[in-house]
User: Fold this.
Amino acid sequence: MTEVRCYAESWPLRTAFVISRGARSQAEVVVVEYLRDGITGVGECTPYPRYGESVESVLGELRSVFPALEQGLTLEALQTMIPAGAARNAVDCAMQDWQQQRAGAGAPVPPSLPTVQTLVIAGPEAMAASAREAVAQGVSVLKLKLDRELILPRVEAVRAAAPDAEVVIDANEAWQGEDLPQLCEQLANLGVAMLEQPLPVAEDEPLAHFRHPLPICADESCHTRKDLPRLQGRYDMLNIKLDKTGGLTEALALAEAGKAAGFELMLGCMLCTSRAVRAAWPLGHLVRFVDLDGPTWLAKDINPLRFAGGRVYWT
Ligand SMILES: [Mg+2]
Assistant:
């Protein structure tokens, strides 16, 4: 007999998380527990307003699928039962966690992954100070959140503060009227290693019309394998997140199909606890950039992984 439960949790952040879309002070997550044969599998998701999701909408979606789950819905059948998104992610991860526990699977390989450290939007000097602090702690890849203001001064300030760090940028769809080809040249000349989602999803067609001097990564534009045809020629890299793919099942399939189509890969997460990072672990060795620092923004974590020196360790 199978029993399924879901509930919301709110995790206060240790400091505000500021990106082009706004500031957050809490991580709002939804947890699914999948109980069968005395084993409880747990999965977590982060509903994301940008994708039309709220805690309430995700709880509603989950409850609608619980009767089928309690009657033995398989992981495979789940994939067509709920559309890709946070709700399916929590169920997919809970079922996979249950399967791993039943199989008695041990700690995963590799035992640690390198992860970028995010620097949220602030003045150039404040971002430079955060960069210095991160590098002093051993971080080697910095991810700068940027909006449309002070793009070059912010990057130059971080570059000067952390000349040996690898720097990537995430604009979260905030750029529009800028002369993007010229801006990309300038960023490449500053040694920026990658630019994530500069343009809004519905307006990313201009990316197809110039040679990219640095790789451009699709995040908001890339959810599942269905998106791949329209990303061809516009993007060079894909940011895979379980909350977008609707779980590990589609995430692994997207990684394989994306690689076969010539994309480089990145692995990302939302503001989440270590539960969500553990679920994404099997993708870590497949990607060029691991961006799993979500739990480092929490004031308190659950079953925490250890983050140190620019790496995350399975504990
Ligand atoms: Mg992003």
Notes: The chain has two domains: 2-103, 112-313. The first helix runs from residue 55 to 70. The chain is about 35% helix and 25% strand. The two ends are 31 Å apart (CA to CA).
